[in-house]
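Homework-ish question, so no full write-ups if that breaks the rules, but can someone show me the predicted structure for this set?
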Amino acid sequence: MNAPVVAVVGGGQLARMMVPAATALGIHLRVLVESPTGSAAQVVVDAPVGQASDEAAISAIAEGADALTFEHEHVPNALLDRLAAAGVAVRPDAAALVHAQDKIVMRRRLTALGVPCPRWAPVTERDDLAAFLADQPDGTAVVKTARGGYDGKGVRVVASPDAADDWLAAAARPGGVPVLVEEKVPYTRELAVLVARRPSGEVRTWPVVESVQRDGVCAEVVAPAPDLADATRDEALAVAVRVAEGLGVVGVLAVELFEVPGAAGEPPRVLVNELAMRPHNSGHWTIDGAVTSQFEQHLRAVLDLPLGDPAPRARWTVMANVLGSTLEDLTHALPRVAALDPGAKVQLYGKDVRPGRKLGHVNVSGDDLDEVRARALAAAALLRGETL
Amino acid sequence: MNAPVVAVVGGGQLARMMVPAATALGIHLRVLVESPTGSAAQVVVDAPVGQASDEAAISAIAEGADALTFEHEHVPNALLDRLAAAGVAVRPDAAALVHAQDKIVMRRRLTALGVPCPRWAPVTERDDLAAFLADQPDGTAVVKTARGGYDGKGVRVVASPDAADDWLAAAARPGGVPVLVEEKVPYTRELAVLVARRPSGEVRTWPVVESVQRDGVCAEVVAPAPDLADATRDEALAVAVRVAEGLGVVGVLAVELFEVPGAAGEPPRVLVNELAMRPHNSGHWTIDGAVTSQFEQHLRAVLDLPLGDPAPRARWTVMANVLGSTLEDLTHALPRVAALDPGAKVQLYGKDVRPGRKLGHVNVSGDDLDEVRARALAAAALLRGETL
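A: Not a homework solution, just the prediction itself:
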């Protein structure tokens, strides 16, 4: 056997969930894990321990690999450029990844590509922010750090420039993280499009989904997004493809979107909120709900294999996240979940329980959306330690 | 984390394919593998090396496990009894397993349970066989060794008692393997029922499938079995449940059946051919074609968790085995298979290529049986190294 080797930086649940697809296709996964007992390390045979900032560790896993990829964006781009120059298939490459690492770089590039975005501006001075706020209908806007934010971190709704003083001061220091401001989009809901692209150019999209956020974190995903106007769907898919192609993404790209009301008599529009250049929470439904999961597709894409069919396998699939739990160990809830719902597809991440932490998810598929959603939420509630 | 631990004896593809289900449910797999580079060893983190005949090795993996189970039946029953007496959850236990190990024990017990079987007789003397043959309409019958046969090995169609002389002589030696003879059933096709049972008694069956054999080996499985009379289906399911309950099986049981013509004006009947007390080739379609795969169900059953929904996820699923290949490494065919059929679900076992060896399989699901079947066979052909 001379299996293809995919090296993955990061040992969280996204790397963990690559295991089934890699096992099926005979792909050898080599995962750089932060801890020998972490989520991916529990289930990956070849899992050297090292940090994503450790250039020697990344170089070591890339050695002899058919592709080097990532389960998060916190990776040293200069090293990736050197590895690419030395012949490593870095996928996505640093030139693409930077758009998922730096929101200012992303906004500039998307604007240049004509991709619909919220109005935005880089902010270096207090006065920049004051001017932007003065332009807003309600005098508020969203300030973000350009790098390092996720799941609502590094994002702040402000009504006064004072509220960003700490970030602006930090940004002004050498090596500081730049700040940007965006309009507070009057969105009706959040959508997401997952798209995969391989180096030879083939692109595949899954159906547009609705992502339901609670406290700034994705709580559930409904696939496909209900009551979505055809034109809005087509725009969302076209935007995702334009981003994937325009940024030269390889692998899975998640494009998080705001749905906003259209002009009078027109269907709703979409604006790009965030990008993630890897399998993403908004695509976990594909594990059970699509012919090809995002994890299999990511592996195919980074190995430049023809992409799999992203068609849904059921009319509706709802994914409910398990965010925190009162249980010490989520497997203790398996008897209750299994007794409640023999068709609930549970995915546990093997992570220590902490408040609000993403510990697992549940997928349920079926013909009746209300029922499917209720079932997914009920199973997730049991895994959080609630009683029904 | 304090994950449930399932210890598995045997490191072939059946243990390998437990990995995705175990990963999803947060179950820790500990697999006793024959070789550190074998099929399961490639993808199981906790995979001590040892033979299934090595009592110390089996005792070691059972230590602290929530259940001890098997991917084949070649295990020392006396040890299993001792482990069970010492508190290990041996699932299935030796009292059940013996029916999958010894065809004479199986036939005796099934006959006592009133389960329809081919006419049969144990054979110790040449004259026993001669008498049985004289009773057959065409003077031929099927001679089998009671133990050690699989995939057509240990099975011989004979027209004369001479043809079994070697086996009878071997059987007569101390520790020899006994011999039985069965009528050559005039079957129209082979069916199989996969059933799962957990210790607390819950039983679930998947739909009856048709198993297409070539050269005594399963080549493809069609789920559900096409053109199956309702009464025949009901009988097949009832037979499987009766066997699972009657033998006290825990875990997945495969009941291989002959479909035989009914009396005039009556629907076809079934006769039990073979039993396997573990996930089985006839159930590989469930990985992609059922809400709960046989591998997830086996893990649930041996841990006495409520069983999952075995409902099919598509009208038809066809599984095509990859038996041998002209390729040195099956992953070399992935680009061709993926380009041919984006919806073909490929499962490679990571095994060295040998003529006729089960190296992988392909599942295809859809609404049109002819198309689904053609697609599965075409993808499997590419993996065998054929050109289309």
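Now go work out the reasoning yourself. Hint: The longest strand of chain A covers residues 251-260.
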